[in-house]
């Protein structure tokens, strides 16, 4: 099977700049998928491709169905395993085995990253709860194919939506006990408590499990902030995803509300918007040699978009370095921790900023990579400096660079 592509432009929907989740009934993997597909039916094709890429057992059926509880209309995402799949092998699957299958499957890069991220969050929480090594975590309920399909579908949705701001409102605590492969566990389940560290839970009077480990892992991976609603922006649409239980006081739904990019930015030629987290600190007590190594490590971390530094004058007349890291919001917590481990700074300031960016791609002119950008005023090309670094002489380098850029703009190139 050819490798799949995660390209938000495949969708017929407009660019999404923010998604807000309202866990009226709770949140589970199937509820998240159903809510997003109710809001954006065009996401169904990437979901089908992602699940099929993992080569599920013959007879596995997954479908999206209209559903109503008499109060609200929405969608329900269901996965039914063939009878032969309900064996111990499928319900006791080690994280290292699932990781290997995801890494080798012909998934798009962003779908693979999201699937691995959600599963890794689950594995780390389960390892901490049960006192085992992360690679030795044996998934039970999550090892079943219905849960694997939920996570793959959620990963495909997240990848196709693309970078955006995720937030969630109040989260229901639930109460009582839940039956698991480890026996009866208190609600919220121990793994859920670990995954949702820092979030506030409320008792809305409804009992039972309201947030599943998969639902909590999705929130953890997304880095969803807990707030009533995101900053003002154009409303794009919403969807309701139903869970399997029914409640006396409310619909068992998760609502996803999608917001578009601000019209003044979205309408500009060649521009789209997304959001990044900006991490900042100043350092005045780390050697330049060691700091250079640290910044190389940070620069290579997953989710880091850019790292820059400049000299500053600090307290007591000390000359120091100001460090700024641009990072995807879903990776901000991890990268902030890495900055504190790699540098001598005792704290990191962070904020979220909206940015306008131009569409760009890399093309080849001979053996030189050329970055092509679709700017509002027209297309520009810039040869990669590393590819001409081996050419001797300033004039010769300039000639090679200009020739490569001209060839790209003339269309006489190969796409990278």
TrEMBL record:
<dbReference type="Pfam" id="PF01969">
    <property type="entry name" value="Ni_insertion"/>
</dbReference>
<protein>
    <submittedName>
        <fullName>LarC family nickel insertion protein</fullName>
    </submittedName>
</protein>
<feature type="region of interest" description="Disordered">
    <location>
        <begin position="377"/>
        <end position="416"/>
    </location>
</feature>
<keyword id="KW-0533">Nickel</keyword>
<feature type="compositionally biased region" description="Basic and acidic residues">
    <location>
        <begin position="392"/>
        <end position="404"/>
    </location>
</feature>
<dbReference type="InterPro" id="IPR002822">
    <property type="entry name" value="Ni_insertion"/>
</dbReference>
């Amino acid at each position: 099977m050819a490798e799949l592509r995660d390209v938000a432009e495949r969708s017929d929907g407009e660019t999404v700049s923010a998604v807000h989740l309202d866990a009226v009934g709770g949140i589970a993997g199937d509820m998240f998928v159903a809510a997003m597909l109710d809001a954006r039916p065009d996401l169904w094709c990437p979901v089908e491709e992602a699940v099929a890429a993992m080569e599920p057992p013959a007879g596995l059926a997954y479908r999206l169905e209209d559903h109503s509880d008499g109060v609200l209309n929405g969608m329900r995402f269901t996965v039914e395993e063939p009878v032969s799949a309900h064996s111990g092998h499928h319900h006791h699957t080690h994280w290292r085995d699932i990781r290997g299958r995801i890494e080798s499957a012909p998934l798009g890069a962003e779908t693979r990253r999201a699937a691995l991220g959600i599963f890794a969050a689950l594995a780390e929480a389960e390892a901490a709860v049960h006192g085992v090594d992360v690679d030795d975590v044996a998934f039970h309920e999550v090892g079943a194919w219905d849960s694997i399909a939920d996570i793959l579908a959620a990963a495909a949705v997240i990848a196709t939506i693309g970078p955006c701001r995720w937030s969630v409102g109040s989260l229901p605590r639930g109460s009582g006990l839940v039956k698991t492969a480890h026996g009866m566990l208190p609600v919220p389940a121990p793994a859920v408590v670990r995954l949702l560290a820092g979030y506030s839970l409320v008792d809305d009077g409804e009992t039972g499990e309201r947030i599943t480990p998969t639902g909590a892992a999705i929130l953890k991976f997304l880095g969803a902030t807990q707030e009533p609603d995101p900053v003002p922006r154009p409303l794009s649409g919403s969807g309701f995803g139903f869970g399997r239980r029914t409640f006396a006081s409310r619909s068992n739904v998760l609502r996803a509300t999608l917001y578009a990019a601000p019209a003044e930015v979205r309408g500009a030629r060649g521009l789209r918007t997304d959001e990044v987290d900006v991490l900042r600190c100043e350092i005045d007590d780390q050697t330049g040699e060691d700091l250079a190594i640290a910044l190389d490590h940070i620069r290579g971390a997953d989710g880091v978009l850019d790292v820059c530094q400049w000299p500053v004058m600090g307290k007591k007349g000390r000359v120091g370095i100001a460090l700024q890291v641009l990072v995807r919001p879903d990776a901000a917590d991890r990268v902030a921790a890495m900055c504190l481990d790699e540098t001598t700074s005792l704290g990191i300031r962070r904020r979220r900023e909206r940015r306008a960016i131009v569409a760009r791609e890399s093309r080849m002119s001979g053996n030189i990579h050329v970055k092509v950008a679709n700017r509002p005023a027209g297309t520009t090309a810039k040869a990669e400096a590393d590819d001409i670094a081996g050419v001797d002489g300033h004039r010769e380098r300039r000639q090679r660079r200009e020739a490569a850029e001209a060839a790209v703009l003339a269309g006489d190139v190969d796409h990278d």
